[in-house]
């Protein structure tokens, strides 16, 4: 699978009231197109090799995949806190940046017009809020914080597949609450908690600042290959049902 290609999304983002500068990473399948699109929303640590491989993985599964770098305009230190606040508020330039990525996919000549969204950690929170906006065909939320008014946020959501770790101390009970909310709203969904996994268990390697990694291990965060294999199978099956059919 070829490495993702860096592209400039600045014109789209500024037109939508988003970042003054926005880059993204586009990955294409090796099979003949056209393909459905998928927007990838990265973790709080930003775009790194692990997130780029997640983008490649979605392309390998048959999706025209684009990950916007939400920290382009200012870097992680300046952008992290306001971007995380925006995730649950549903407001701010980060959502305009995601819309810039989505419209870049729908405008691509090799896109079928159907677009899904997959988010990890911070990106998982974005995925849940964006799922209720009526512009995506499916969403995958992975260990993402739940919206404060979850019933209102998900009342008219697209189909949602969610994956959480039972050892994730930050999100105790989140999987059950999400499952119950989607059931109440009668939204097609597949939500599962993995008892032996923690936060960021879908990653294929440790990431984040080296100084923080010992602390992350103590909290149970990081790769859990057995749980990840099952979660990826569910995600790919769910997206195939709702994006490729």
From TrEMBL:
Molecular function via GO: hydrolase activity
Gene3D superfamilies: alpha/beta hydrolase
InterPro entries reported in the protein's UniProt record: AB_hydrolase_fold, Dienelactn_hydro, Dienelactone_hydrolase-like
One Pfam family recorded for the sequence: DLH
Dienelactone hydrolase domain residues: 23-242
Name of this protein: Carboxymethylenebutenolidase
């Amino acid at each position: 699978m070829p490495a993702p290609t860096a592209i400039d999304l600045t014109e789209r983002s500024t037109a939508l009231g988003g970042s003054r500068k926005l880059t993204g990473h586009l990955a294409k399948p090796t099979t003949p197109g056209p393909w459905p699109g998928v927007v990838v929303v990265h973790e709080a640590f930003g775009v790194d090799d692990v997130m780029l491989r997640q983008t490649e993985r979605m392309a390998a599964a048959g999706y025209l995949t684009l990950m916007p770098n939400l920290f382009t305009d200012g870097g992680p230190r300046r952008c992290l806190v306001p971007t995380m606040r925006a995730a649950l508020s549903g407001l701010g330039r980060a959502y305009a940046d995601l819309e810039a990525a989505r419209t870049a996919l729908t405008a691509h000549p090799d896109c079928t017009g159907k677009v899904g969204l997959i988010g990890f950690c911070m990106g998982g929170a974005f995925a849940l809020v964006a799922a209720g906006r009526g512009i995506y065909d499916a969403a995958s939320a992975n260990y993402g914080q739940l919206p404060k008014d979850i019933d209102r946020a998900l009342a008219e959501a697209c189909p949602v597949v969610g994956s959480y770790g039972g050892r994730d101390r930050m999100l105790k009970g989140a999987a059950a609450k999400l499952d119950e909310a989607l059931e109440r709203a009668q939204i097609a969904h597949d939500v599962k908690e993995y008892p032996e996994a923690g936060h960021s268990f879908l990653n294929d390697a440790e990431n984040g600042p080296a100084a923080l990694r010992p602390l992350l291990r103590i909290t149970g965060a990081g790769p859990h290959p057995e749980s990840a294999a099952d979660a990826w199978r569910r995600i790919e099956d769910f997206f195939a049902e709702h994006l490729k059919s």
